[in-house]
Amino acid sequence: MSKLTNLQGNRACVLGAIEAGCRFFAGYPITPSSEIAENMAKELPAVAGTFVQMEDELASMAAVIGASVGGARAMTATSGPGFSLMQENIGYAAMTETPCVIINVMRGGPSTGMPTRPSQADIMQARWGTHGDYSAILLTPWSVGEIYTETQRAFGLSEALRVPVVVAFDESIAHLVESVDLASAVSKKGMIRKKAVGDNKSFAPYAVTDDCIPPMALPGDGFRTHTTGLTHGEDGFPTQEPLAAERAVGRLLEKIRVNQSRIERYESSHCAGADIVIVAYGITARAACLAQEQLQAAGIQCGVFRPQTLWPFPELAFRKSIESAGHVLVPEMNAGQLLVEIQRLAAASDKSVAGLNRIDGENISPSMIVERVEAFLDE
Amino acid sequence: MSKENIPLTNNEDGADNFDIRDYLRLDLFPHFMCPGCGHGIAMRALLWAIHELGIDKNQLAVVSGIGCSGRISAYIDANTFHTTHGRPIAFATGLKLARPDLHVIVVTGDGDCLAIGGNHLIHACRRNLDITCVMLNNETYGMTGGQVSPTTSDDRFTTTTPTGNIEPAFDPCALAEGAGATFVGRELTLQCPSLKNLIREGISHPGFSFIEVLSDCTEIYGRKNDLGESAEMIMKQKSAYRSENYGLEPKEMFQPGTVSTGILHKGDRVEYGESLRSKGPAKT
After folding, report:
1. Helices marked H in chain A
2. Is B255 part of any domain?
């Protein structure tokens, strides 16, 4: 039975999070994400959760990690400048393998930029924002309904894989009001944190397991583990021993790689036999789909590849989707960020790759894409 | 200090069955602190207070930041978190809110707590969540080689003040009281039993407790400023501070020519978690 209701994107994010078991939110006001904090302040107490407005984004991210090591499903929400401030502690969450969800409502940048205008310019920051080698997960919903479901999926992935998960959508979807089916709950099967069991004396909190995901001990369980952002051995204590250091960082990368099939999600439409494939995410993918219909009607064989999981990028599926195409177009509201990745993936082929970029705080329209595709095919 | 050399009894009377080894991760010894550093005494006082209060190690969370003070958490046999520079109080805020059943203690330093983490300190004082913050003040960034800190005394030489410090030092206790902390105290590492008592009172206080511990960095700061060996440095601190027998009543914070130790301020605002839980759901 569906439960349809009209929601704003930011509110859908909150309801999705609570549906997924989020019981802790720490944040700091910032346009265009503030409605997430406001809705959390209202909704969390009703489910015995905790909302706290912290003194800045550094504190917000730290408090979220603190709540998560205590066992709570925890998240924060911010926008560009705040996302920049959170990067150090996102690295701490990656290094200590602490589950947490970070919502980044993307606005124009760099710096203060255009706080009320949409953008997709933080996708590389979500991938490479903190220092050091690590693998990030970034989900990029394209509608209010998908914000509701992808926020749920973010919690499941974060808890199951013990990684920080970023959900990024732009200002225009955050403030869009659309019909959402509140019954569209994402399956929670297997999407829980592995709990430490057994003897507390022999427990190694960062032991290597088949799926590269170590079980997590919580305070009060009797394991009394040590958690540090320093490179640590399997026992959790700092090490500078080269082999142990290589294994520790290597496993963080390997964890994402071996679990990629659980993480990746994409839609590939009309790609088989297409002459051109448009690769687009978030709101821009909606323009791409409308453009595809118009192009198809005009006799141009055009497909759309839409990664909902942007990082790790669904490489195999993407390569398959462009098999027949000679052209690949990457429209995005930035100066060409995913474009670089697509060029890398298509480098070994003879395909022609181009971007369609907008950095003026306006959305890319279907007609812009149609015009660019027609020109591209004539080049 | 190797694990064989850890003193078993206290310099008070040793009759309270406190064996510090029950609270340490002995596998990690010898610890990495310099000879003469006051931080080990502070750790001892903290563990002694925990012992006196009968706190279950499984319900104890020790959260530290970065710097020499930050490394203390690893040696304590509890749920320990060595977090990012300046953020242990913010981290502890999330942990305590999610897990009110835990005893949450922050161990931090003057740079961690007052410079990079200063914002979190003042807001934690204002918020009054039940966390005990033990700040080890050695007036310098020892870990990075002895740079000037927010508590470096006037005209002292450090690696980043080669001609003497021109910035006035914070009075951390006055700062904490001004920001609204409901428990503020200060003690020297010279007086481990008094420090233990102060920390015990801080942990028992329902609300945010700020405890400044005057520690000494003999190897770097002391050497650079000709302050002598550890014992000399501590005796110099003693002469500068009005050190009285520990009492429960708050004392005047400032005395001419000296700075007070002991409990310096107590307030009785409602603890944050209690306030939060009393509010209930929002009205629609």
Report:
1. 9-19, 34-43, 57-69, 80-96, 123-128, 144-161, 171-174, 242-258, 260-263, 283-297, 315-321, 338-346, 366-378
2. yes
Is B279 inside a domain boundary? Answer: no
Task: Sort out which chain A residues have CB atoms less than 8 A from B68's CB and list them.
Answer: none
User: By C-alpha distance, which of B54, B179, B57 is closest to B114?
Assistant: B179
**Predicted complex ipTM:** 0.97
In this complex, is the C-beta atom of B80 within 8 Å of any C-beta atom belonging to chain A? Answer: yes
Chain B contacts in chain A segment 69-128 (CB below 8 A): 69-72, 74, 88-89, 92
- Cβ under 8 Å to A: B residues 111-130: 119-120, 123
Q: Average pLDDT, whole number, for chain B?
A: 89
Residue A327, domain extent: 267-378
Q: Indicate yes or no: CB of A63 within 8 angstroms of CB of B94.
A: yes
The pLDDT of A144-156, averaged and rounded, is 97
pLDDT tens digit sequence for A247-287 = 999 999 999 999 999 999 999 999 999 999 999 999 999 99
Give pLDDT, residue B7. Answer: 53
Q: B84 and A229: CB-CB below 8 Å?
A: yes
CATH number at residue B109: 3.40.50.970
Q: Last residue of some domain: A157, A181, A205?
A: A181
Could you tell me if A31 and A167 lie in one domain? Answer: yes
Of B263, B208, B214, residue with least CA distance to B92: B208
Number of domains in chain B: 1
Residue A124 has pLDDT above 60, yes or no: yes
